[in-house]
Amino acid sequence: MKISNWGNYPIVDAEVQSTFRLNNGCLQGIPRGMGRCYGDAALSPKILSTPKANRLLNFDAATGILTAEAGLSIAELLPIIIPQGWFLPVTPGTKFVSLGGAVAADVHGKNHHSEGSIAAYLLGLTLLLPSGERLVCSSSDNREIFHATIGGMGLTGLILDVSLQLKAIETSAITQDSYKARNLTELLELLDRYEPSTYNVAWIDCITKGKSEGRSLLMVGEHATKTQIEQHKWAKDLLQVPKKARISVPFPLPGFTLNKFTIGAFNTLYYHKQRRSHVASITDYDTFFYPLDFIHHWNRIYGKRGFTQYQLVIPREAGKEGLLKVLHKARAAGFGSFLAVLKLLGPSSDGILSFPMEGYTLTLDFPITKRLFPLLNELDAIVVDHGGRVYLAKDVRLGAETFRKMYPRWEEFVKIRQKLDPQGLMHSLQSQRLEI
């Protein structure tokens, strides 16, 4: 069948299995959860589809420890745990992600600078090796394989289940403070000032030049307490799970819909929607963490050509210089991003191929065109020169040589892979491209 991931590029012919049959006693293919990675990391001639393996195996509402099959999605899990007073310790920008996919990508969220990635809360997992053997892995059992699997993009085997420590919450609401930054310099100052906050994320206008270059809106958030909710009379049910109507993009839009004029107009309107320099509010967790989830099939905005999300991280000391060079290069090439997001990241996890490192992470959306990949190669060079890397969960074209410069532990990962899978049965288009 024809299949692609969230970027709708590339589209491949694949045999998709939702029951994990062993071929001559061996497991072969690449695991794929909800298909929300943007590139080809979960594409292969044989795909092991996990969403049907989505049982909650155990949940201790007193301690917040749960064990679930890897195909369970965040969207399915939240209505179970929130009414019990628990939330995910780390969540990406969409809830349509499987737990196994979250571990394989070592996802980070708006709180990485303060609380780390999903790896910090992963108590253990069960891995089905290419040989057909089941292996229990944790920081104390099969430690080397455990750290190769975290951020390993599904290449060590099929994650069958995961055990996580959840975060206690008093309410399902978020207190949000939104700050207006006139340019990138002011934004970085605000990020430094509000670094003690649990959550922060900034939207950036990447089109505007001159004194307003990098003008932004910074959102800072905390889980609301019972007292805060009761004072504001925000809701009677303190642990409510909001039910909101979703709109849908019914078909791929024409390619001309997104251009420098429409993107520029959107950025101007979005920046000026907030008139004051600071606005305080209380919102629901859905709006704060998953704003794009309200638009079903929003990836169709980019048309049939598809798109990619280029996410980079640059160490803090080189951050401003590197970020400006990236923005200048993209703008000079005529590529604006309708969605540009900047966050702070904290120290790396123990995942061998984990993306986060202490610094600034910038995310840019680009439609697929003939001119895009040469531009991204140039952006790669800027990122490498400033000691950074790009996120493999969103990559669709990174070269093997550049990958090795960005991920210095790649040889360690390859050696573990060769031990677990000497025949190379578990592979993706990405792993072949990166030569791992």
Ranges with pLDDT <50 over ≥5 residues?
none
Query: How does the overall form come out from the CA principal axes?
Result: globular
Instruction: Figure out the total of helices.
Output: 13
| Major β-sheet strand ordering | 17-13-15-14-20-21-19-22
**CA distance, first residue to last residue:** 26 Å
Brief overview, please?
With 436 residues, this protein is α+β, with helices and mostly antiparallel strands. The protein is 26% helix and 25% strand. The longest helix is centred in the last third of the chain and has 14 residues.
Polypeptide structure, described:
The chain is 26% helix and 25% strand. With 436 residues, it is an alpha+beta fold. It has an eight-stranded antiparallel beta sheet with strand order 17-13-15-14-20-21-19-22. A five-stranded antiparallel beta sheet has the order 6-7-11-9-10. It has a three-stranded parallel beta sheet with strand order 3-5-4, with no helix packed on it. The chain is globular. The chain starts with a strand and ends with a helix.
